[in-house]
Amino acid sequence: MEETKENYDLTPRVAPNLDRHLVFPILEFLQERQLYPDEQILKFKIELLNKTNMVDYAMDIHKSLYHTEDAPQDMVERRAEVVARLKSLEEAAAPLVTFLLNPNAVQELRADKQYNLQMLKERYQIGPDQIEALYQYAKFQFECGNYSGAADYLYQYRTLCSNLERSLSALWGKLASEILMQNWDIALEELNRVKEIIDSKSFASPLNQVQNRIWLMHWGLYIFFNHDNGRTQIIDLFIQDKYMNAIQTSAPHLLRYLATAFIVNKRRRPQLKEFIKVIQQEHYSYKDPIVEFLACVFVNYDFDGAQKKMKECEEVIVNDPFLGKRVDDGNFSTVPLKDEFLENARLFIFETYCRIHQRIDMGVLAEKLNLNYEEAERWIVNLIRTSKLDAKIDSESGTVIMEPTQPNVHEQLVNHTKALSGRTYKLVTQLLEHSQGQAAR
Amino acid sequence: MSRFFAQGGSDSEDESDIEEEIQEVQNNDINNRYLQDNSDDDDDTDTKRVIKPTKDKRFEEMTHTVEQMKNAMKINDWVSLQENFDKVNKQLEKVMRITEAVKPPTLYIKTLVMLEDFLNEALANKEAKKKMSPSNSKALNAMRQKLKKNNKLHEEEINKYREAPEVEEENEPEDEDDDDEEDEDEEDDDSKEAVTDEEVDETTDTRWETMLNKKDKQMEKLLSKDPKEITWDWVNQKFKEIMAARGRKGTARFDLVDQLTHLTKIAKTPAQKLEILFSVISAQFDVNPGLSGHMPIKVWKKCVLNMLTILDILVKYTNIVVDDTIEPEENETSKPADYDGTIRVWGNLVAFIERIDTEFFKSLQSIDPHTREYVERLRDEPMFLALAQNIQDYFERMGDFKAAAKVALRRVESIYYKPQEVYEAMRKLAELVEEEEEAEDAEEESGPISSFIVVPEVVPRKPTFPESGRAMMDLLVSLIYRNGDERTKARAMLCDIYHHALMDNFGTARDLLLMSHLQDNIQHMDISTQILFNRTMAQLGLCAFRVGMITESHSCLSELYSGQRVRELLAQGVSQSRYHEKTPEQERMERRRQMPYHMHINLELLEAVHLIGAMLLEVPNMAANSLEARRRVISKNFRRLLEISERQAFNAPPENVRDHVMAATRALTKGDFQTAFEVLNSLEVWRMLKNRDSILEMVKARIKEEALRTYLFTYSSSYESLSLEQLAKMFDVTEAQVHSIVSKMMINEELHASWDQPTRCIVFHEVQHSRLQSLAFQLTEKLSVLAESNERAMEARTGGGGLDLSSRRRDNNQDYAGAASGGGRWQDNNMSSGYGGRQGNNRSGYGGRPGQPRDWSGQNRGGGYASRAGSGNRGGGMQMDGSTRMVSLNRGVRT
Fold first, then answer.
1. Residues in domain PCI (chain A) (predicted)?
2. Which CATH architecture has domain B604-764?
3. CA distance B738 to B746
4. The pTM is what?
5. Cα Rg of chain A (Å, integer)
6. CA nearest B758 in A: which residue?
7. Taking a contact as any Cβ pair under 8 Å apart, which residues of chain A between 150 and 169 contact chain B?
């Protein structure tokens, strides 16, 4: 897939870090947006499907691509093969599956894994082989596109599995299944679980660990931009040193999503400064309108530039599979994130602008904010009313006048010294405790 | 025997070093006579025993002493035995020194064993002991103690000898029997055996003229031999003879080379030819004694040609394997060319090529760079590159990637410092050189005897170069990253970074440096690598300057300039230190490390870049903080220079780089960017830069910016408001730029002002503190310092932190090159990363396809990603400073 010039499509960079199945939603999106010729996308889909077991689906696509009614021979063969394999796996996993389907039996399981294994072995003749078969069966189900089945089996597999490696794999599988079923809440839980394991587990090489983190971040994109609380979560996850390092080294394109999250999320302002530094450092390796927008506002203070970037950002967001999610509202669909983004970006510009100005002409301001005069006035009045802005409007001259924010010298001095007494007090108590401790000894 | 006696005696007084000639003459007279006698006798063989070098002589002396000891034992004379024992120990020292052997010769060990046995016997025999004269028994006791002490030193060898007394003899060369053995007495036999035991080593010899006639005779014999009579055996025997002569006293090294070269022509099988060629090359290496001098250039060239011939043979006869780990069988080389199965020949191509490279390097070190000779010498480089390339190809074909990586490193090291232009020139030169060489070759080939084994030139004599130096570097370094050992990889990485920096890819170069973690452990590496590291840092600094990243440039260079030892750190000259006298030994070592002139980084340019960077950062900084109690210093070095220049009553017109920058600084402090730039523009060094105009443009822009900032810092208190237009005109910058710069200052709270948008003015706020207020601020500042130090004292008491402070200091005190880098600071920021894991695999199911970058760098990306955090702090230095200053104004609650 070659990249067309304007649309800043990240699919080629994102896709390698995703599971095969996770790429489908992206392709669907691209197809809908018509960024690429249909044919190309269909071909790509078939290519993807060839390695999975979703043969029926592949056949359908093949038919629509070449406008024929016959599926190619190899696909038919493969279908037969897949079905056969499914059968055999099903058989292998059957004892455990029946056990798990029996609610009475399941109740016998306890929190103690060792006990469970022992119990299964003794009473149901279910050994490691069967458990392994369950895993294979679940994996196969996943490959076939039966995500809910896979998710259930994997959940149960995890309670029985003793192999750490396998259990991680099962977790990834569960995560993918939940994402594909769009159960964002559960998926988020799974994500955190995987993260925990990645962070705590010891890897063969640090590279492996980084790679795992990058996978996790990519997979997380689905969740973060769909879950209600995702935008805070994404910042919390990505800004962590370990993850930020991974982004910087191997996947700078993720900065786009982080930047977007920062812009639309007001709650994580304190970390923004840190992020700006990262942007400055990475500007040579990755360029993106959204990132550049931040750079314009916070590094170069180039507000006209920011203005231009904002327009480009709009384009980017609409065409991004993660950001440009549409909500159908009656006849026409909107991209909720886009509006949110623009609103917040505007606020960003204005905020910074105000910080360095004493007096601003309303007309200029309106222009800068992409609003007309009345709208701008209303907007500012709103800001002042919600006391987000310490300013007054001078209607006569048509200007906004900022209130000076210079702290008083006395105040500063008081602030300086305020903490000192507390610190000293703490020190003294510490000292006393220490000496008492020693005396007691 | 008396002859030898004289010799033994005369020796004890001579403290002869190898160079000492005078007293050797008398010894050698005897020696010669003695030898001549012998050689006249052996008419049956066509060799002459060549004269004995110093080493042989020493052995003879030793043998005589041993003989005397034997005699003393027979008559049970412990007094003389003791004397002789002391003597033999003294002689041993000399022998060891000459042969540079680690192990004492067998003869000596044998004697020790004999003595020990005899001593035990004597002690056991109580009756005999009683009968001894008092002096004799005293000597016996003394001897017992001495021997006990002495034998402890050689315990291992003695045991070995006792186990297998004959082992050593087995390795005797073939020429033993046809040599002049019959009229040599026993001890000579011993000495000879000892000689051949030792790896024949380089010795100096000064007396080869006298033997010339004999050499000629020998040569003649070689030449006059009827080609039809030459057999493998004959050649082999000849070869052995010549080899035995190698390193002995009186063997002319040039003759040795000639003889061997001739032998290569008459060698019967390719393997034999190969074997002899190896010896030729070793002999050529020996031509130059000592470590300081370099190999004559002519010999070097021949050496390279020989190496190429070796490769020709190896490529043509693929069944021949070169190896230095196995001891080949005696007649391995007699196997004909069409022998199926591998023929093993002893040799180490990597060692040879490294030696050749080192010799090339040394010759460049010692030739005066301003002469024609130097340029001529540089022209030989393509020749070496061709050879290295061929050898590398050969290793790759043989699957020996480790060796290939080593050779590749040599190639990398000879191109990494070349910018694209020089690289192009070298490419062109390589084509030209080739033609000349072919003509020369043709001449040489028309010698008297054409060789039996004619090897066609299979291996290309011309190095092939990819279009760009970068492509070549990429090719080579990726091979090294895959296969090299640690040191090779580290060096290749440094060269890679250097080359990236040379090509102005600052980002890539910096990332490589940070990810490779080289800064952390560079001080544990060898000095030559440390020098390379320093060079890389210097080049990185220059690169950052060229792309306009002044802060980065300064942080790369500042540590290099923190001491007054730039020359030393870059190995581009020796700097005299006033306080610390160097020993001659140190000086010699240092001289050996020097970079050849063509690899130098221009020091003037480096200094200019460093000082200009420091100026651009320091001048506004000084202006901003002029009133503050606690000054923040960015560049100590710069401050010091500025102080010196300010102390002068009159300022002369600038002469050197430093003067220029100081003059520019004076102008800049006043906000006079025009003069500042003009002064810098007049610097000579700019012509060293490739895209000089654009860089000067950048410098000018930066000067304007900093002048504007300085102006605002200095004079803001005098203004109520300033119009944007006026500022833009004053500093010849666009209004947008002024706006951006001033806005940045406002946000960072460096400037207490705000824009008045309708009138396009900067309005300054009244923040100037009164005297009382600023004193109050100072007081609070001091109070908080006090509180902090109290806390720290408390922590130290109760065993909190505090320790990391001292360890930090230790870090900053690293000696020598390790200190010359931004490393010291950067590495402090590194967090420990990568939990060294035991288990853990790739995720098996749910196939994700990791998109992995290039192998080694990829690996290091993994390993080194944590260091990015460090770079984060570094890159954002300016911002952080702004914020800390902000904090100092209204430092709120500290938790």
1. 223-407
2. Orthogonal Bundle (1.10)
3. 12
4. 0.66
5. 28
6. A361
7. 164-166, 168-169
